[in-house]
Amino acid sequence: VTVYANPAAGAVAVAQRIAALIRSKQADGEKTVLGLATGVTPIAVYAELIRLHKEEGLSFKNVVTFNLDEYYPMQPGSVQSYVLFMNQNLFDHIDIDRDNIHIPDGTLAEDEIAAFCLNYERQIEELGGLDLQVLGIGRTGHIGFNEPGSAPNSGTRLVTLDDLTRTDAARDFGGKENVPTKAITMGVGTIFKAREIILMAWSKKKAPIIKKAVEGEISGDVPATFLQLSDNVEFILDEPAASEL
Ligand code: GLP
């Protein structure tokens, strides 16, 4: 666990780690495979990566990305879609090749989802796995959309969203009744295979779930507790989020 005085300091530190990884892989002629997250938490990281691209020449030409999750169903043009979020907060401002961007597809027919999810896993594996996965955390303890009840070895799949998650998303959708009941998410097992995992949390609102995630009993009731089983996880927090540890 590393605690920063404020979210901006934590976000800059994470962006610099990502930039260093990209540069060292580039120097070796290798691709960097990043697992990315949505939500308010990583926005400042993406802003710093954009700044590093524009001001310090950081290139994303050799970067391949896999986003954690997407609501289901969801059209990519909808204001709540994670496709739009990623375009607005990162991809539209950097030199990434569009073919290297992967986000779970919220437009699939239900009977296409299983094959899509297997292919998502296969694409990650064929690239040699995720070098680094960035995570936020939901108040249910979800990582990606792995809600309570998720298995530690779960893969990419269609899941049902927790009631609390839908309550927290209500504002984005203009009412809870408009929040999709399902999502497609990478699994806990998918996340676990990343060589490095960084979970970020800012603000007092996250303090109780951070306490459970870092110090609580390991259990599917709080999927983020599974991260305690990995040696490759770092929690990057601001002081309020760490205040109950
Ligand atoms: C959503 C995303 C998660 C994210 C969580 C927290 O549920 N699917 O990946 O970690 O929100 O969001 P925020 O960072 O806005 O608190």
UniProtKB/TrEMBL annotation:
<feature type="domain" description="Glucosamine/galactosamine-6-phosphate isomerase">
    <location>
        <begin position="8"/>
        <end position="228"/>
    </location>
</feature>
<protein>
    <recommendedName>
        <fullName>Glucosamine-6-phosphate deaminase</fullName>
    </recommendedName>
</protein>
